[in-house]
Task: structure prediction
Amino acid sequence: MNYGMIVYILGTILKAEAILMSLPALVAFLCGEGDLMPLLTAILIASGAGLLFTLKKPKNTVIYAREGFVVTALSWVVMSLVGALPFVFAGAIPGYIDAVFETVSGFTTTGASILTDVEGMSRGLLFWRSFTHWVGGMGVLVFLLAIVPLSGGRSVHIMRAESPGPVVGKLVPKVRDTAMILYGIYITMTVVLIGLLLLGGMPLYDSAVHAFGTAGTGGFGIWGDSIAHYDSAYIDVVLSIGMVLFGVNFNIYYLLLMGKLRSILRSEELRWYLGIIAGATLLIAWNTLPQWGGMLRSLRYAFFQVSSIITTTGFATADFNLWPELSRMLLMVLMLVGACAGSTGGGMKVSRLIIMLKSAKREISRMLHPRSVYTLQFEGKPLEDQTIHNVFTYFFILVFLIIASVLLVSLDNMDFDSTFSAVMACINNIGPGLGVVGPMGGYATLSPLSKLVLILDMLLGRLEIFPMLMLFAPSVWIGKRRKG
Amino acid sequence: MKIVIVGDGKVGQALTGRLAEEGHDVVVIDSSPKALRTSVEVHDVMGVSGNGASYAVQKEAGVEEADLLIAATSGDELNLLCCMVAKKLGARHTIARVRNPDYADQLVLMKEELGLSMTINPELAAAREIARMLRFPSALKLDSFARGQVELVEIKVKADSPLLGQALYSLSSRLGIRILICAVRRGEDVYIPTGDFVLREGDKISITASPDQLDSLFRKLGIYRHKIHRVMVVGGGRIAYYLAKQLLKLGMFVKIIEQDAARCEQLSETLPKAHIILGDGTERELLEEEGIADMDALVAVTGMDEENIIISMYAGTLGLAKVVTKINRMSFQEILDGAGIESVITPKGITVNQIVRYVRAMENSQGSNVETLHRIVGGRVEALEFNVAGNCQGELTGIPLKDLRTRKNLLIACIIRGRQIIYPGGNDTIEEGDNVIVVTTEHQLQDLSDILERP
Result:
């Protein structure tokens, strides 16, 4: 292990976080609600620690896959631990575990909250809380790769560890350029969304905060009743479409920029993703029709909720906890599916679902025709067995983790709906679940143990399990120290 | 620059690394996803899997906007096809590896008809390098600048050397020879020495000098070796063929040992003047029987690194004037120093250097150009020859060198003005039209103006 390099990258992350925190500090200064000091203190701590860690640049800057995974996982942990400080200093969230839960939920773009009174929080802190979504959505390390050259060619390991999806490729030959393009698209889309929300009569502050929540597919809002507060069809539709677009693989937008329309139309994942959204929306609209008393109204609420759940955002315009059972279960299923690979969304990802379905089909066909040769194709390219294997392993570990977490959380003695959906909502980075943790409820009442389990689940979910799991593998840590 | 490399083999991989390191946008095409994976993980490049000669694959790799396509697959014909397709798609330049001796005579035709910018033949290049080494047996390594007017050699400082224990600035006057020591390797470290540097035993030093000055230096140092007349070549591959052809032309006696009967036949057909021996070159008895002890030089160019090393070590114990070892795997070079193997040649490294030189020249279509580039001291130091064009006037030209704020670890080794060679002191100046040789540990020098310390 190249410990020197790991510490160095962690230090760089802390410095970056300090810089990112100055934006909410600016907002706090402008709003003048007395939350400037806590933010400034946190910035001071982050930059101080960051400078200390980066004092000595290691001679050996080579990092292998192993260091890439470890550094990614540790970065997210460290970032969350420091990001929680402003909430504690301001006294807005007195318990440190609660504050960390809130921050992890922010960075992992989950949107699960332990706050009981969101509206009582000061604007600077609320801004930071939503800004973590935006930062975590595309990934801090990807951001770093765009601005500082970390370690030459091997930085692809870091990008791969942080970006979601079974196959992570680059758009252009250089990692740095790829990261810049991704962030360029991300920032542009966010700005456009803020503009559209402003047109709908939302104040600037609200627009920015909700655009961050949407862009990162996070779901933190500033009102107790989430988006329902505005009760505007325009805002609902803009946000629904916004969420769907941020759940699309960003490579698609790059292809769009390059004018390669045909390859976009050929994208299997995109077609499936849109198909699933359309199907689920129609089913839920039909199922909840009696409640709204009009097809258009019903479609509006169904579409919003479906896009909010499948992209793992977690905004709400209605308390879907009160919807008929079929709709509730459909939403549960969508939680597991998640958005597209290479997007800011969480969950298992549509592409993994497609790969598993295709592989299952092949197994069945093999049983019928034992001599048949059958190569799996995805996005017009043959799938390597390694990828398929990886997808199934991922799925198995995901299920295993869900079961283990459900058992641990069940110590809290909540009903099945709440226990199960709390775990699902956290590990898939969605936010609201059903029952106690439903869209109008929260995670405040859970025990500290459950919160810790869910914190871990959120991190596991955001980094797609393996990087986090590797922190616990002894072989990662055992071995001679390489000269740093 | 946007560069597409077809073929992710030995040369492809080394090229990928070097070009990516120099900051180019590199896309690699190979039919094996496995080979690509290593490249993509280690270097900051993109991989495209598929047949590099196919239109669709080249399009996917973005050959249309590429500045350069390098075809380095194992097949000559495939390489040529790759270049033709790329040219049609709109690549600005193409380089093909063509190594079959049968095509060697039609290279000019191919360049013109197929629009190739350059063809490379690693074995031929390696053979040329070896031939040069044999002509200058005293040096470990030899490179030349300004069409042979200036030589760059690497030698080892022995225990009784007159170079020892003196600061460098006094060396020239004491020995009465105009030389310049431009790089010193001491163990793991590499220095670009200043005037007060003192050499120690075991240092490997790189020296620039004109050929005749070099000759007298070798005499003074007592390491002068007589001209080589008899050469034994172990291994009868392509390098051996090209090498023998050149050595025979120089009038040397060449004996080739090769263990494949058919290949021996072939060699004796194409090289009627050479002595071809059928047998295993790793057998000590055979080597002795064929009179290895009477040879002036031995060149080990079998396909196996290990065999080459063992044969060379054995030849080293016999006190031959020159032993040249071909090694394909470059990563173990520093171990060989300890094993008594001195002159090492890697065809891959030579090819890569050639292409990098071409790429740099392409990049500087204006300003001062890199004319030649040599990587010395195990690739850690670069010696570059620039031509001073008109447009860097004022910044560099006409200013005494002592007033130029050059970068650290950089030395202006030589200024060539017409037929005159200047080993510059502080009062010398660089003028338009000069050729300037710069030695540096920085690897990203693109232009002569890069030697200045940037604020």
About this structure: Chain B is about 30% helix and 25% strand. The CA atoms of residues 388 and 432 of chain B lie 5 Å apart. Residues 347-363 of chain B form the longest helix (17 residues). The domain at 130-221 of chain B is CATH 3.30.70.1450 (Alpha-Beta Plaits).
